[in-house]
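[step 3/7] inverse_fold.run input=structure_tokens len=269
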């Protein structure tokens, strides 16, 4: 009897461990980013202006309700290397935003109803954040702070493909044994697989493209990833152009130096 009890105890522990082991064996390291083709990839790549404008529309109508774009000003929208908006279009976009106004002639920043005085945005202004402070942002997002998107492509390993993967990765089924924590959503392309961004943040036909492009989730994700890549590196095209010019100069200079060397030393031997 004692022998049976002595054997049953360790066998029971082993059996219990084997039953519970799969729950601890799940590796929640985020999946590698999806393979995506972007027009700006490679040393000679450039931004697709139509995709930039569509991506801005996705940001403005969907992403900007939670995410800021702190490092971008309205005048960036009509400058060389940008999305290709005209100055008039950029001014209209800026004017559609309401920013906190300076104190009035009485020194007040609130009207007689206690509402904060505002003014229309101008080209000199940066994109206003969706919340007045971090506390308000967390309070409206279940205690989580939505990251600023103006540098997200530079800040995340995988760049624009990471943004695309996150935006299109919500509709996969969690593996058996993985419990999605309350207040989060399953996304295997996010570290830990549980992300605070709702799985309804980007849906098909979330926007209506003015150029007639079909607004699938994949198209919207590709466009907003393109726009955020530009936001993270607004001078990319100028930098690549300068790099190419320097490369051509060095090749020509090398040729001239070699020709000079041959001319000077041709009779030396």
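[step 3/7] decode complete -> sequence:
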């Amino acid at each position: 009897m004692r022998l049976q009890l002595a054997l049953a105890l360790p066998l029971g522990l082993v059996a219990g461990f084997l039953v519970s082991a799969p729950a601890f064996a799940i590796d929640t390291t985020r999946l590698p980013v999806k393979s995506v083709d972007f027009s700006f990839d490679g040393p000679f790549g450039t931004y697709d202006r139509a995709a930039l404008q569509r991506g801005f529309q996705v940001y403005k109508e969907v992403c900007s309700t939670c995410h800021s774009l702190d490092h971008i000003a309205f005048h960036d929208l009509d400058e060389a290397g940008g999305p290709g908006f005209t100055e008039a279009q950029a001014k209209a976009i800026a004017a559609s935003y309401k920013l906190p106004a300076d104190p009035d002639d009485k020194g007040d920043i609130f009207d007689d109803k206690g509402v904060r005085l505002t003014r229309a945005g101008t080209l000199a202004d940066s994109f206003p954040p969706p919340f007045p402070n971090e506390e308000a942002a967390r309070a409206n997002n279940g205690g989580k702070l939505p990251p600023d998107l103006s540098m997200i492509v530079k800040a995340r390993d995988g760049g624009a493909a990471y943004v695309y993967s996150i935006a299109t990765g919500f509709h996969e089924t969690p593996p058996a044994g993985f419990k999605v924590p309350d207040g989060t959503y399953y996304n295997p392309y996010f570290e830990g697989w549980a992300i605070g961004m709702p799985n309804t943040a980007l849906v098909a036909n979330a926007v209506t493209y003015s150029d007639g492009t079909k607004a699938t989730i994949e198209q919207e994700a590709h466009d907003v990833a393109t726009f955020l890549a530009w936001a993270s590196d607004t001078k990319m095209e100028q930098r690549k152009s300068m790099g190419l010019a320097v490369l051509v100069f060095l090749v020509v200079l090398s040729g001239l130096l070699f020709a000079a060397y041959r001319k000077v030393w041709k009779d030396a031997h």
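[step 4/7] annotate
Residues 236-265 form the longest helix (30 residues).
The chain is about 40% helix and 5% strand.
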